[in-house]
Design brief:
mainly alpha; 2 domains; about 70% helix; flat
């Protein structure tokens, strides 16, 4: 996916590099480097391999869950501003039902994220070094991705 996006100019050209068999070398190398860096940083803050696994797992799942919150909100906005737009599927029902579904989805995501951030169900889990790193790392990654996408979108609309 990163290679296809890079070939369209939506991501850095480095991600579009491939070998003679058309395997995505650029995206794989960057992914491997980032994964190694993240595991190395987490290894410095954890005391056991079990804790290391849980923190890396939590970070990965949080990064995968975060985009769904704005996606739910985008669903509501598009249904309000473009109700007649043809779509692959349509959720029937009144507007309050759409808000209910969206709210349930967002609440479920926040609940799942809280379990990942606080595995023992206590707020002091967030104050552990690894817990703080998971929370801060997730927020930093979200901001980096958002700024890259926003910058790319603006450069494409200005040309």
């Amino acid at each position: 996916m990163a290679r296809a996006a890079a070939e369209k100019g939506e991501l850095a050209a480095l991600l579009a590099r491939s070998n003679h068999n058309e395997a995505p070398v650029g995206a794989n190398c960057i992914s491997g480097f980032l994964a190694t860096l993240i595991v190395a940083i987490y290894a410095l803050t954890t005391s056991s391999s079990d804790e290391l696994f849980w923190e890396v797992f939590s970070f990965s799942v949080l990064i995968m869950m975060l985009p769904y919150i704005p996606m739910f909100l985008a669903f509501l906005k598009l249904r309000a501003t473009e109700p007649q737009q043809p779509r692959p599927f349509h959720i029937p029902g009144p507007v309050w039902f759409l808000y209910l579904l969206t709210g349930c989805g967002i609440l479920f995501l926040l609940w799942a994220m809280s379990i990942l951030l606080m595995p023992n169900g206590r707020l002091d889990d967030l104050l552990r070094p690894a817990g703080l790193m998971t929370l801060t790392g997730s927020l930093i990654m979200m901001l980096i991705i958002e700024s890259l996408l926003r910058g790319n979108f603006q450069s494409r609309t200005n040309t």
